[in-house]
């Protein structure tokens, strides 16, 4: 699926989900729409990222419909059912129940792993397919839920690849980093990521001095910054969400914490918004995360599509886009929205997200083994891919220049 049609504005996209409720009688011979539940936190602490995932999903729905719908189903159009899970797992599960009753044939979501764990479990009660757009906890696809699929990589391979990149970059610079403090949000995502890093960093010669958890939301990181300053690490590694991410880094800079580098794994606030709005603070921050393949013209065109419509391009948009794309591909190959046929079609899928730096798609237990994150760095107000070399469009700046 390619992104050829113009980006619809948010109001138009939101209206599209209810357009079929008043179809004129002359159109009743058309195939029934295929309803998809899009469940995200679009209010509260994760509202920005959740809204970006939702926007990507809506863009994909618009593209599929503009290209003729699900052709094997006579051109059936996709229709969005939208739900706000806030940051409440019980609400995410309840939304699945409501959407299943409203005729949903599949789901995407939920940005947060904790929301995704609840929503996928709820969808399993109905054996309805769930395509995870963002949510990296390993157990999203290791619980044996045959209805759950993730096109994108899970936490374990992301952490392993991040450590490999950090080791390579550090050694190429003469190994200036010998110790680290890990700062993470205290839910499923941040805790699991930090724990995995703690186990792996000593293997590349980096001593972990302390793990520092925090709540979401957190409004003041002064005490954590001072604790880090007292520990005197060369490196801080961050795993948290957008608001806390940017506030923590700003606090570290303001408190003049001396660091060789600031590195994040799945840093929720690492993005173009951060790079452009806080250039002096965000400069040379490194992240290991999801991104597009900068060597693919389609990737750059998709980013331009978002930005020319006044949007902020983030990886969440790509995730939402391709999570819906995977479901649409499943319907296309099954020739039906019948869950008994769609789920096997998804399990056997080789659907390839052409704009992402991935290998061939292969699902094992609902997890695509071909998905990979990449090493990124903010340079001159933009995000550059610095690792691995086959996808890189810049070289790493390491150590971080002193200001």
Descriptive overview:
The protein is an alpha/beta fold. The protein folds into two domains: about 10-155 and about 295-370, Rossmann fold, CATH 3.40.50; about 155-290 and about 375-390, Rossmann fold. The protein has 13 helices and 14 strands. The protein has helices at about 10-15, 45-65, 90-100, 115-125, 155-170, 190-200, 220-230, 240-255, 270-275, 280, 295-310, 315-335, 340-345, and strands spanning about 35-40, 80-85, 105-110, 130, 150, 180-185, 205-215, 235-240, 260-265, 285-290, 365, 365-370, 375-380, 380-385. Strands 7-6-8-9-10-13-14 form a seven-stranded mixed sheet, with helices on both faces. A five-stranded parallel sheet has the order 2-1-3-4-5, sandwiched between helices. A two-stranded antiparallel sheet has the order 11-12. Helix 2 (about 45-65) packs parallel to helix 12 and helix 12 packs across helix 13. The radius of gyration is 21 Å and the shape is globular.
Strand order of the biggest β-sheet: 7-6-8-9-10-13-14
Strand % is 15-25%
Helix content: 25-40%
CATH class of the largest domain: Alpha Beta
Instruction: Enter the CATH topology name of the largest domain.
Output: Rossmann fold
Number of strands: 14
Number of domains: 2
Q: For this structure, what is the CATH homologous superfamily of the largest domain? A: Response regulator
How does CATH name the architecture of the largest domain? 3-Layer(aba) Sandwich
Oligomer category: single chain
Identify low-pLDDT runs.
1-8, 11-27
Order of helices and strands: HEHEHEHEEHEHEHEHEHHEHHHEEEE
């Amino acid at each position: 699926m390619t992104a050829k049609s113009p980006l619809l504005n948010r109001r138009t996209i939101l209206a599209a989900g209810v357009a079929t409720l008043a179809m004129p009688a002359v159109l009743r011979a058309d195939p029934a729409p295929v309803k998809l539940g899009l469940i995200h936190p679009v209010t509260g602490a994760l509202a920005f990222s959740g809204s970006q995932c939702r926007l990507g999903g809506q863009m994909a729905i618009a593209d599929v419909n503009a290209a003729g719908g699900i052709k094997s189903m006579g051109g059936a159009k996709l229709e969005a059912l939208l739900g706000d899970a806030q940051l409440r797992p019980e609400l995410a599960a309840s939304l699945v129940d409501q959407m299943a009753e409203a005729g949903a044939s599949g789901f995407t979501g939920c940005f947060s792993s904790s929301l995704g764990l609840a929503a996928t479990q709820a969808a399993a009660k109905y054996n309805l397919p769930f395509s995870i757009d963002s949510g990296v906890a390993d157990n999203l696809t290791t619980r044996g839920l045959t209805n759950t699929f993730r096109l994108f990589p899970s936490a374990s391979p992301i952490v392993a690849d991040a450590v490999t990149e950090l080791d390579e970059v550090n050694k190429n610079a003469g190994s200036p980093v010998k110790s680290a403090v890990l700062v993470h949000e205290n839910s499923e995502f941040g805790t699991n990521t930090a724990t995995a890093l703690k186990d792996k960093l000593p293997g590349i010669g980096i001593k972990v001095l302390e793990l520092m958890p925090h709540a979401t939301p957190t409004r003041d990181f002064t005490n954590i910054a001072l604790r880090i300053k007292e520990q005197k690490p060369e490196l801080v590694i961050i795993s948290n969400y957008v608001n806390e991410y940017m506030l923590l880094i700003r606090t570290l800079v303001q408190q003049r914490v001396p660091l060789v580098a600031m590195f994040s794994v799945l840093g929720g606030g690492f993005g173009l918004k951060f790079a452009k709005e806080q250039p002096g603070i965000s400069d040379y921050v490194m992240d290991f995360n999801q991104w597009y393949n900068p060597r693919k013209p389609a990737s750059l065109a998709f980013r331009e599509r978002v930005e020319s419509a006044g949007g902020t391009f983030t990886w969440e948009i790509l995730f939402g886009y391709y999570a819906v794309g995977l479901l649409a591909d499943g319907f296309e190959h099954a020739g039906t929205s019948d869950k008994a046929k769609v789920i096997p079609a998804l399990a056997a899928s080789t659907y390839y997200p052409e704009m992402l730096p991935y290998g061939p798609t292969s699902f094992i237990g609902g997890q695509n083994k071909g998905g990979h994150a990449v090493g990124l760095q903010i340079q001159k107000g933009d995000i550059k891919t610095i690792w691995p070399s086959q996808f890189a469009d810049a070289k790493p700046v390491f150590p971080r220049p002193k200001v």
